[in-house]
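Our consortium's second objective concerns turning raw sequence data into structural hypotheses that experimental partners can test. To show how far this objective has progressed, the report includes one record in full. It was chosen at random from the queue rather than selected for favorable results. The single chain below, 387 residues long, was entered without modification.
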Amino acid sequence: MTLNGTKQTDLRLCAVSADVGEALGARVYAAPERPSRTAFQRDRERIVQARAFRRLAGKTQVFTSRASDHFRSRLTHTIEVMQIARSVAEALGLNQDLAETLALVHDIGHPPFGHAGERALDECLKRHGLRFDHNLHALRIVEHFEQRYAAHRGLNLTLGVREGIIKHSRDYNPAEYPDLAGYLLGKRPPLEAQIIDLADEIAYLTADLDDGVESGLLEIDHIRRHVDILAHCYAQVERQHAGVDAKFLFNEALQLMQNVLTDDLIATTLANTHAIGATTLDQVRDHPARLATFSALAEAHRLQEKRYLYDTLYTCDALSLEHSKAEQVVTELFDFWIKEPQELPVGYVDEIETEGLARVVADYIAGMTDSFILLQYAQVKRTIRRK
């Protein structure tokens, strides 16, 4: 791809425009423009000020009951994803404000207890012919549940951010989701949205090794023997810092691994986009596959580490017990409120007629933090004993 005969080293021609007059800058409800801030900067601030965003501080990333102030929460993980996404967007010449905003909102739809809570909620809804999808729940949060404005419900975010919330990590079949017709399901998301899922991968691949070692469930030497990319990075920093304690070498290796994966994402996305000759956002959108990817080698490393984390950390006995308890709490609370809907808060009872009882119960549970759902569980147990 060339411009005036010069090879482009970034993808700014394919970036989403910051102009509020563009389609992706449009809002459902008219809002006065602010010359000092772009539309996506304003969205970022609306998200950061949202209650659902603040609740991420009390939601599990990997660990639930294992007491340590050092383990990541959904909020700290989100901040790490944002840092990576913004650096990738800056290197590629993309819209940094949009990428940062999408990173900040990407996990806002997760329920308490991490993936264990999500699995349990999905299983509960299946019994009622429904499913739980944290991307679609995030859209419900920003369009319906957040109430900060006198004239309308929701945060009134731009189309670009709402589309990215839905599509950053997966594609939806237009025939299966007719209610999402306004979100261009037949087209790929912009590169700013595409990089979020991979920035998420980079963040948790690094953080989960770190938290795993901090918890005592993983050992540095075992990781080095089974995770090639970490082993390579560890060997490199060990040569540079001979005689340093393994803990500090491991920290350096994690930082290097994150940089290696981030640089690979930047280089591969740039190469993929150049390879199809894309010079516009529409060409990115119309391409049959996503252009933000890792190289074949980095993807192999990613899959190897992901399998390792699954086999040694996510499904280890200690966390499996936590997950089982979490699933029990979610399931029992769901069943209780299905049988006793009058016990729901008044605002949720009012939603039943339009949304249906099962969806309303799921919405209520999904919004809870880990600590709040445990308080609710104890209260419900007391209520049941009194009856």
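The partners drew two points from this record. The chain is about 60% helix and 0% strand. Residues 113 and 326 are 6 Å apart (CA to CA). Both points have been shared with the crystallography group to help prioritize constructs.
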